[in-house]
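re: that chain from earlier
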Amino acid sequence: MENPLKYLKTWKFWKELIIMTLGMMFGAAAVYYFLMPSKLIIGSISGFSIVLAEVFSRAGINISVSTMIFVINAILLVLAWILIGKEFGAKTVYTALILGPLVSLWEKILPYEKLVSEGTSVMNDPWLDLICFVLMLSISQAILFRINASTGGLDIIAKIVNKYLHFDIGTSVAVAGAMICLSAFAINPFRMVVIGLIGTWINGLAVDYFTASLNRRKRVCLVTDRYEEVRQFIIKDLQRGCSLYPMKGGYSLDDKTEVVALLTQNEFAELFNFLGRNNINAFITSGNVSEVYGMWNEKRRRHEK
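^ sequence. v structure.
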């Protein structure tokens, strides 16, 4: 980045800062209301902080979970800087360090003790606590991944394992998560440790699902004699690019042109409305695409030019 101070004045910076803060608030709520009361230990820094806080408490040293989260994340960021280098940007530093304070904020806004009617957890069932926690945390992680940020913590451990033990990154995440889950033997019975391991695995699946859902696009293939009108609509009205492919009809052997474009769900609906309004007959197929690279994010720049 050539001029960091100039970047701080952009709307992109403040928009992403707001998204990161709201995403981390959502994740902190998942930790505070579902992980802490039930003492479920999922493969995350939050889970490891619960273990350490409980171990220190039994030794007569009272340290809050939020403080432990903050301290561990700070240590991991220093280790990452020393052992890995400068590959972690300001986003990771910000999200990793605000998790602990945000957990404390939820504690002040609405203590979970007020929501516990009976038993020791909000849902009064470890499996329901697990499902609620995983769903909320996975949504938070998917939102952060979408803007090239992360929650820090476990990601940092995974990268260190990846670099020095030469595991691939997926295996590194699994190893780091499993090690944290196994640390729960210090405070939890075998059954709760197994639930934590299952939760870690489900969390990975849920993150993949929500990330794919947020990034999903429609690959639309359209064949019509009035393809030029369709092309103009996609380029000028939808502000999207498209490709034209010459083709020959297998039944009629007529020369035709196929229009291919990547659209959001709303843009796909607008295209259908355009075809209906203008009585354009077309043969259309569409499929979901979960990842798009290249010029997709240039829409606003083209519009401004």
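The chain is about 60% helix and 10% strand.
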